[in-house]
Specification:
The chain is an alpha/beta fold and about 475 residues long. It contains 14 helices and 21 strands. The strands form five sheets. An eight-stranded parallel beta barrel has the order 1-2-3-9-10-11-12-13. Strands 14-15-16-21-18 form a five-stranded antiparallel beta sheet. The protein has a three-stranded antiparallel beta sheet with strand order 5-7-6, with no helix packed on it. The model has no long low-confidence stretch (mean pLDDT about 95). The structure holds alpha-D-glucopyranose. The site of alpha-D-glucopyranose has 9 residues, from loops.
C-alpha cells in the first residue's frame, strides 16, 4: 500500500441530485483516482447512521445508509475499483455504536455502565458519561455514541462478524477508528492529574488528566488480536491517537498507525524533522497531514506551503494518506462553522471541486455544505495546467512508485527539512526566505518552476533531486 486516497463520501460526488455524495457518485469518479495514480481509496463510514457524527455513529455494521446507496451499489463500487487495480479500505468504528443501534436496547450489557460518573472526559468536551434510566453509560465521543465493552466476548464476536462481512464482499482492509479508546480500565478508575504532556494536542480539560485509565488499557493487544483474527491478512491502519513511542501494541497487530505527531507539527523544519525522526524509529508509520477532522493542507500549513506539504507527505517512506481535494489545494469553509458538526469540523468537509461551475460539478441539486471556491480551484482546470498543484501531486505519486526503499534524515540549513529517499534527495524550505539545500543534482520534481536553482531553494519551496 503506498498512496491511499481518503474519500469523504458525503462530499465526493453526488449522483442523484439530493446534494449529498453517494456510492454511485464515487464509482463515476474512480478514473480520477486511476489518473492520479493512487493505489487505494479509503471510504469514511457509509453504514446506516443517524449522522450525529456523520457516520461515525453506526446503527448497523452490515448495511449501507440509504443516503449513500445500498449493498448493490457497494458491490458495484468494489468491482469497478478492482477492475481498475484500485484497492478499497473501509472505515470501521469498533469503539462505540450509535445509541440508535438496536444493540443498545437489546444488549445493554454490551456497553459500559456506572451508577455514578467517574472523571473521564469526552473527546468533544464535558463528562464522558450520560444518564439513562438511573445509570450512566460511557461515551468517549458524543453522547449519541455509546462505548462498547470489548471485554464482553459477545461484543467481540459481533464485531468480528461485521469485519468479515465487508472483506467477504471484496473490501481490502480497514482504517480503524479511535482504536486507542477501545479498552479502558476494567475498574473504571478516575484518571489522575497529568504529570507530563500527552505528546499530542488535547482539549484544555483533557490535557489536565493523564489518560491512563480511560483508554489504551494494558490488555488492549488482546482485543486488537481479535480484530486481526477476523481480518486475515487484510491491510489494517489504526487511528491511534497516541505519540509514536506508545504504538508498539498496535503495530503488533496492525500494518500501520497514523503518525499524528507529524500531522500536528508546526510547519517548521526542526519540529517536522523531530516528528519524522520519532515516527520512523520503528516501521509502521502511516503519513497523514490532513483529513476530515483536522483540516486541509492549504489551511493547516498556509496556501503558500500546501505544495511543499504534499511533497513531504508523498516522499516519506511507508503508506501516505491523501485527503480528497488536497490534490488541488482545495480551500475550507469559514472557521468555526457549525451547521452540522457540533465539534466545528464542517469546514474541512465541503464538496469536492471537479470543475469551475458554481456547484463544482459535485451535484445537480443543492450541496449539503456549500462549494467553497470551485471557480478558482478545480480538477478540470488543473488537469490541463502543467504548473498546477494537481500536476505536481500526480508527478509525486508516480515518482514514489518507482522509489526503492531507503530513508535517512539529513542535516541541513536552519529552516530546511532534508532527507535521502530511494536514491534521491528531498529538501523543503519551511521559511519565507531563500535557503541553501543539501542537494547536488538537478531537481527532478519541484513545487514551482525554478524552485531549486544552483543549490538554493526558493521561499516555501520543496524539491526532489537525483542523487
Ligand atoms: C475519529 C473520526 C472522527 C470521529 C471520531 C469518533 O476520530 O475520525 O471523525 O468523530 O473518531 O468516532
Amino acid at each position: 500500500m503506498t498512496v491511499v486516497y481518503q474519500v469523504y463520501p458525503r462530499s465526493f460526488q453526488d449522483s442523484d441530485g439530493d446534494g449529498v455524495g453517494d456510492l454511485a457518485g464515487i464509482r463515476s469518479r474512480l478514473d480520477h483516482l486511476v489518473w492520479l495514480g493512487v493505489d487505494a481509496l479509503w471510504l469514511s463510514p457509509i453504514y446506516p447512521s443517524p449522522m450525529a457524527d456523520f457516520g461515525y455513529d453506526v446503527s448497523d455494521y452490515t448495511d449501507v445508509d440509504p443516503v449513500f446507496g445500498d449493498l448493490a451499489a457497494f458491490d458495484a463500487l468494489v468491482r469497478e475499483a478492482h477492475d481498475r487495480g484500485l484497492r478499497l479500505l473501509m472505515d470501521v468504528v469498533p469503539c462505540h455504536t450509535s445509541i440508535e443501534h438496536p444493540w443498545f436496547t437489546e444488549h445493554p450489557d454490551w456497553y459500559i455502565w456506572r451508577d455514578e460518573p467517574n472523571n473521564w472526559l469526552s473527546a468533544f468536551g464535558g463528562s464522558a458519561w450520560a444518564p439513562l434510566d438511573g445509570r450512566y453509560y460511557l461515551h468517549s465521543f458524543y453522547p449519541e455514541q455509546a462505548d462498547l465493552d470489548w471485554r464482553n466476548p459477545e461484543v467481540v464476536a459481533a464485531m468480528q462478524d461485521g469485519l468479515r462481512f465487508w472483506l467477504d464482499r471484496g473490501a481490502d482492509g480497514y482504517r480503524i477508528d479511535a482504536i486507542d479508546r477501545l479498552l479502558k480500565d476494567p475498574h473504571l478508575r478516575d484518571d489522575p492529574p497529568a504529570t507530563e504532556p500527552f505528546g499530542l494536542p488535547l482539549s484544555e480539560a483533557e490535557a489536565k488528566l493523564a489518560r491512563i485509565y480511560s483508554g489504551n488499557a494494558p490488555d488492549t493487544g488482546r482485543a486488537l488480536a481479535k480484530i486481526r483474527e477476523a481480518c486475515g491478512d487484510a491491510f489494517l491502519v489504526g487511528e491511534v491517537y497516541l505519540p509514536s513511542s506508545r504504538w508498539a501494541p498496535y503495530l503488533e497487530h496492525f500494518d500501520a498507525a497514523f503518525a499524528f505527531e507529524l500531522l500536528h507539527s508546526p510547519w517548521e523544519a526542526g519540529a517536522l524533522r523531530a516528528a519524522v525522526e520519532r515516527s520512523t524509529r520503528a516501521p509502521g508509520a502511516a503519513w497523514v497531514l490532513s483529513n476530515h477532522d483536522f483540516g486541509r493542507l492549504s489551511t493547516r500549513f498556509g496556501d503558500e506551503n500546501a505544495r511543499a506539504a504534499a511533497l513531504l507527505l508523498l516522499m516519506l517512506p511507508g503508506p501516505a494518506f491523501l485527503y480528497q481535494g488536497d490534490e488541488i489545494g482545495q480551500g475550507e469553509g469559514p472557521p468555526g462553522e457549525r451547521r452540522f458538526d457540533r465539534a466545528g469540523r464542517d469546514r474541512h468537509r465541503h464538496p469536492m471541486q471537479w470543475d469551475g461551475s458554481p456547484s463544482g460539478g459535485f451535484t445537480t441539486g443543492e450541496a449539503w455544505l456549500p462549494v467553497v471556491d470551485a471557480p478558482e480551484r478545480n480538477v478540470a482546470d488543473q488537469r490541463d495546467d502543467p504548473g498546477s498543484m494537481l500536476t505536481l501531486v500526480r508527478e509525486l505519486v508516480a515518482l514514489r512508485r518507482e522509489l526503492p526503499d531507503g530513508f535517512e534524515l539529513l542535516d541541513a540549513a536552519d529552516g530546511v527539512l532534508a532527507f535521502r529517499r530511494g536514491g534521491h534527495t528531498v529538501a523543503i524550505n519551511t521559511t519565507a526566505e531563500e535557503r541553501p539545500a543539501p542537494v547536488r543534482g538537478e531537481a527532478r520534481i519541484q513545487t514551482a518552476p525554478g524552485a531549486l536553482s544552483r543549490g538554493l531553494l526558493a521561499p516555501h519551496a520543496g524539491a526532489v533531486a537525483m542523487g
